[in-house]
Amino acid sequence: MKLYYQAATALICIVLFSSINVSAQRRKPARKQVTPKAKNELVKPTAKNELVKNGIVFKSRGFKVAEAYLVFDDENPVPEDNKVALHQNVNMLLIIDSGWSEVNGRVYPGSKQILKLNTGVEILNSEELFAAFDETGVSPDDARYITLNAIVSDLKDKQKHVIVNFRLWDKKGTSELTGSYKLFIK
Question: Would you say the C-alpha torsion 67, 71, 73, 75 has a positive or negative sign?
Fold first, then answer.
């Protein structure tokens, strides 16, 4: 059975209209596993680390991330150049091997995203996206698969790109993951 947790949706109207919606969703794990980097080390895609894709870079303290990549809603991969159409939902999937602190069999994720144009103009600063689960938490199995979504619905100058900054943290522990990736409009 596929469990789906929708935490929040935010919509902002500036030069670019964006929405973010976050979920912890069960997905099939990939066939290969990646050995995580040391604490607080910046992780970048390399030939050795082929399961971190789409130019996603992140710094992890406590979380062991097996995979990080972008997919569309139909689960087809986003091209490596991160070129997407307007109004196309982009899902960043993070597969977390470990790092959550369990309390009575539940974990308590926190997440936030900030979208900026490449000029530095902030176009979206989301609220805490998992606030709906502050009381109940989620199962550790569901928290293994974190999906953060972004949609670019209007961009006047397609020469500009969008930088999606994300933060994921454990509300009951010390683990934290911060990073970013870029989206380019076709």
Answer: negative
Round to whole Å and give the CA distance between 63 and 118: 28
Contacts of 47 (CB under 8 A, 6+ apart): none
- What is residue 50's predicted lDDT score, i.e. its pLDDT? 67
CATH of region 4-28+39-185, choose from 2.70.50, 1.10.10, 1.25.40, 2.60.40: 2.70.50
For residue range 106-135, list pLDDT tens digits in order: 999 999 999 999 888 888 899 999 999 999
Question: Residue ranges per domain, the chain?
Answer: 4-28+39-185
Distance CA 18, CA 88 (A): 11
Digit-coded pLDDT (tens) for 61-108: 999 999 999 999 999 999 999 999 988 999 999 999 999 999 999 999
Tokens representing residue 20 in the block:
């973010």
